[in-house]
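User: Please write out a complete single-protein record containing the residue sequence and its fold in token form, without commentary.

AI:
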Amino acid sequence: MIHRITKYKIREGQADEVRQAVLEFIRATRENSPEGVKIDVFAEKDGLTFYHVACFRDEQTLEAHTSSEQLADIWEVVYERAESFSQSIAVDLIASTSSDCQ
């Protein structure tokens, strides 16, 4: 499995648009991505800081996702509204209660 985390913070007053875009992104990802993609999106209590936590079955699944229309669409919304943005970083899973991404 391949794991990635992306963090960004949205400018004040922009969170509603981003939340809507996130919901659309997740819907489109469910419908259009190959099997083996799992993405969870979290927001901090401030409502402005978001985390995308993703796991991919293999390199082909990751490549299919990174070249997808839904990913391009969400980042277009985020980039326009972001106060700060960190590129996706690769992380190694140490332990999990879920078997989805191990």
User: Anything to note?
Assistant: The first strand starts at residue 2 and ends at 10. The two ends are 6 Å apart (CA to CA). The first helix runs from residue 15 to 32. The chain has one domain: 2-91.
